[in-house]
Amino acid sequence: MGHKFLKSGSTTETANTPRVDVSAIVKGVIDEIRLTGDDAVRKYSDKYDKWAPQSFKLTQEEILAAIAACPNQTIDDIKQVQANVKAFAAAQRNSIRDFELEIRPGVFLGQKNVPIDCVGAYIPGGRYPLLASAHMTILTAKVAGVRHVVGCTPPIAGKIPNATVAAMHLAGADEIFILGGVQAVVAMAVGTQTIRKVDFIAGPGNAFVAEGKRQLFGEIGIDLFAGPTEILLVADETADPFTIATDILSQAEHGPDSPAVIITTSEVVGQKSIEIIDELLKNLSTGSIAGVSWDAFGEVIVVDSLAEAWKLADEYASEHVQVFTKRPRDALENMSAYGALFLGEKTCVSYGDKVIGTNHVLPTRKAARYTGGLWVGKFLRTVTYQEVKSSEASGELGRLCGRAARAENFEGHARSGDLRAQKYLSDKVAWIQDYQELGNGTKARL
């Protein structure tokens, strides 16, 4: 057994990214917005996006104007994609149930799934208007039952991104702000004079957005600690190198630091995929970005067997895993660490990113080892309740609680149990007897 690298990444550092102290910059933005609210938000929006309108919040008239400015086909496509996302999210919600269990006579335990009250959704812009993120965050939150969703998205070249606004509105956003970057995340997290404080923030973004979410986590909930987009493709000798190359570049174009890995049992498939990628880059409109990513973070690895391929793929724990093998569903039995699986040549990551209905907010940087991606359940708080209706059961639990608590030296806990044991089983408990003898009227109440 062994691995053979046909191509390795040229660096483990983020390519072409200035060495700036992202953490310190973000902390400064957070501190200033906490202090001065909207004034600081406007300052940073003007600085980073050249955008400082009188109000960042769109009126209903402005939202309708943005929708009207979109081609009819775009609106129809948004609605079709959102129908897919909604159907899958609704199935997820239906899989989560409340229940009540009588674990012993007279003792009832229950579980409820309660939606978060107010959620902030960050919809990236900048290089690309990622209107699909509106479906994944806003619509999924609404299917979960979230009462109020605040959506923020940046301007693009100083203009309102009409299609993104349309997607946000049709997904069910209750408020839409044309506001981007870390300043949007911070404003939603801490609240300002015009932007309400939310309880939870979802949505991908650049390094500053991700760092803002990281620093604010705990004060608010977040979906994921997101890094650059990742793709890993497992292929055997039956895979088509042209399809592999096309799909690898579909994700490499996300940014100059997107890992793109091919693990294959066929050296011929691996070598041919490299050759085609190099050719396709010459005529790809986003080739200047995808090429940097492929050069710096692209890998092609030949392994001896599919068993070894599955094992190695799990070690990468990639965000997106495509499976181009004779029996792609074998991955369901042999892999466990991934954000999402895309099974077979007919299924590409781009479908998951844009149209198929599963959520595209997924774990990166090996986070798939401990979490899945954004889903309806992220917007729910699973809470529990309990009720003891039987006097006898309460007394028995009181005896058990007294013993268990004293084993941990928690005398106060033990006494809560003792009290029920005396009340409902007529136990004689020394400390209660002593208290009653003080003649303070407690005896009558007991």
UniProtKB/TrEMBL annotation:
<feature type="active site" description="Proton acceptor">
    <location>
        <position position="320"/>
    </location>
</feature>
<dbReference type="InterPro" id="IPR016161">
    <property type="entry name" value="Ald_DH/histidinol_DH"/>
</dbReference>
<feature type="binding site">
    <location>
        <position position="320"/>
    </location>
    <ligand>
        <name>substrate</name>
    </ligand>
</feature>
<feature type="active site" description="Proton acceptor">
    <location>
        <position position="319"/>
    </location>
</feature>
<feature type="binding site">
    <location>
        <position position="254"/>
    </location>
    <ligand>
        <name>substrate</name>
    </ligand>
</feature>
<dbReference type="InterPro" id="IPR022695">
    <property type="entry name" value="Histidinol_DH_monofunct"/>
</dbReference>
<keyword id="KW-0520">NAD</keyword>
<comment type="similarity">
    <text>Belongs to the histidinol dehydrogenase family.</text>
</comment>
<feature type="binding site">
    <location>
        <position position="408"/>
    </location>
    <ligand>
        <name>substrate</name>
    </ligand>
</feature>
<dbReference type="GO" id="GO:0051287">
    <property type="term" value="F:NAD binding"/>
</dbReference>
<feature type="binding site">
    <location>
        <position position="251"/>
    </location>
    <ligand>
        <name>substrate</name>
    </ligand>
</feature>
<comment type="function">
    <text>Catalyzes the sequential NAD-dependent oxidations of L-histidinol to L-histidinaldehyde and then to L-histidine.</text>
</comment>
<protein>
    <recommendedName>
        <fullName>Histidinol dehydrogenase</fullName>
        <ecNumber>1.1.1.23</ecNumber>
    </recommendedName>
</protein>
<feature type="binding site">
    <location>
        <position position="183"/>
    </location>
    <ligand>
        <name>NAD(+)</name>
    </ligand>
</feature>
<keyword id="KW-0479">Metal-binding</keyword>
<feature type="binding site">
    <location>
        <position position="254"/>
    </location>
    <ligand>
        <name>Zn(2+)</name>
    </ligand>
</feature>
<feature type="binding site">
    <location>
        <position position="413"/>
    </location>
    <ligand>
        <name>Zn(2+)</name>
    </ligand>
</feature>
<feature type="binding site">
    <location>
        <position position="206"/>
    </location>
    <ligand>
        <name>NAD(+)</name>
    </ligand>
</feature>
<keyword id="KW-0862">Zinc</keyword>
<dbReference type="InterPro" id="IPR012131">
    <property type="entry name" value="Hstdl_DH"/>
</dbReference>
<dbReference type="GO" id="GO:0004399">
    <property type="term" value="F:histidinol dehydrogenase activity"/>
</dbReference>
<keyword id="KW-0368">Histidine biosynthesis</keyword>
<feature type="binding site">
    <location>
        <position position="122"/>
    </location>
    <ligand>
        <name>NAD(+)</name>
    </ligand>
</feature>
<dbReference type="InterPro" id="IPR001692">
    <property type="entry name" value="Histidinol_DH_CS"/>
</dbReference>
<feature type="binding site">
    <location>
        <position position="229"/>
    </location>
    <ligand>
        <name>substrate</name>
    </ligand>
</feature>
<feature type="binding site">
    <location>
        <position position="251"/>
    </location>
    <ligand>
        <name>Zn(2+)</name>
    </ligand>
</feature>
<keyword id="KW-0560">Oxidoreductase</keyword>
<feature type="binding site">
    <location>
        <position position="413"/>
    </location>
    <ligand>
        <name>substrate</name>
    </ligand>
</feature>
<keyword id="KW-0028">Amino-acid biosynthesis</keyword>
<feature type="binding site">
    <location>
        <position position="353"/>
    </location>
    <ligand>
        <name>substrate</name>
    </ligand>
</feature>
<dbReference type="GO" id="GO:0005829">
    <property type="term" value="C:cytosol"/>
</dbReference>
<dbReference type="GO" id="GO:0046872">
    <property type="term" value="F:metal ion binding"/>
</dbReference>
<dbReference type="Pfam" id="PF00815">
    <property type="entry name" value="Histidinol_dh"/>
</dbReference>
<dbReference type="GO" id="GO:0000105">
    <property type="term" value="P:L-histidine biosynthetic process"/>
</dbReference>
<feature type="binding site">
    <location>
        <position position="353"/>
    </location>
    <ligand>
        <name>Zn(2+)</name>
    </ligand>
</feature>
<comment type="pathway">
    <text>Amino-acid biosynthesis; L-histidine biosynthesis; L-histidine from 5-phospho-alpha-D-ribose 1-diphosphate: step 9/9.</text>
</comment>
